[in-house]
UniProtKB/TrEMBL annotation:
This is Uncharacterized protein. It comes from Chaenocephalus aceratus (Blackfin icefish).
């Protein structure tokens, strides 16, 4: 998708999730950043094309579908125009969420973890490129913002190892040593 759809228009695909749509084909909700730092959200539709290309050697009769024909941007918005992301209910494992632009767009991710992954990316991009916090409602903040435990994983591992070694030394010091040998 990056090579076929975003790179030719000088954009970098940052995050994408597969979403469920009523129309035929696979659909993705994507967020990309342009060279001018403009952040865009878009719905990309992937419809398997019926045309096939010959591939392989001259004697080969292998055919493959054309990926270039597959991806099309169906809807495009700017992150600046996003006024609210509503998770609907933070206490329920619901993959559906609402994007509030000038109109409200309902999005159903394939999983709740995909929904949170996408919202984390939007949250970070909003702070980085828009210099404003993203307005979120009905999300579990523990899964959105990084905590000290998650951001300093290396320090926690080192501390755990030190505690493990200290515990082993205490246990070994309490073991009786035979004096007969």
């Amino acid at each position: 998708m990056q090579r076929v759809l975003f790179r030719p228009s000088k954009q970098s695909l940052v995050e994408y999730i597969e979403i469920e749509e009523p129309t035929h084909g696979r659909h993705f909700l994507c967020v990309s950043v342009a060279k001018n730092k403009l952040v865009q959200l878009c719905i990309v539709r992937c419809q398997i094309s019926q045309t096939a290309l010959k591939s392989g050697s001259k004697g080969s009769h292998t055919e493959r579908s054309s990926i270039q024909e597959c991806y099309r941007k169906a809807e495009v918005w700017s992150l600046q125009d996003l006024t609210l992301v509503d998770g609907r209910d933070a206490d329920v494992d619901d993959p559906c969420f609402l994007l509030h632009f000038d109109k409200v767009r309902t999005v159903t991710a394939v999983s709740c973890s995909a929904k949170y992954s996408f919202v984390r990316a939007l949250f970070a991009l909003s702070e980085q490129h828009c210099q404003k916090p993203l307005n979120l409602r009905n999300f579990d903040w523990a899964y959105i913002t990084p905590t000290s435990f998650y951001s300093n994983r290396g320090d926690c591992v080192v501390l755990t190892q030190i505690c493990f070694y200290a515990f082993n030394l205490v246990c070994l010091s309490m073991c009786p040593v035979p004096l007969d040998a």
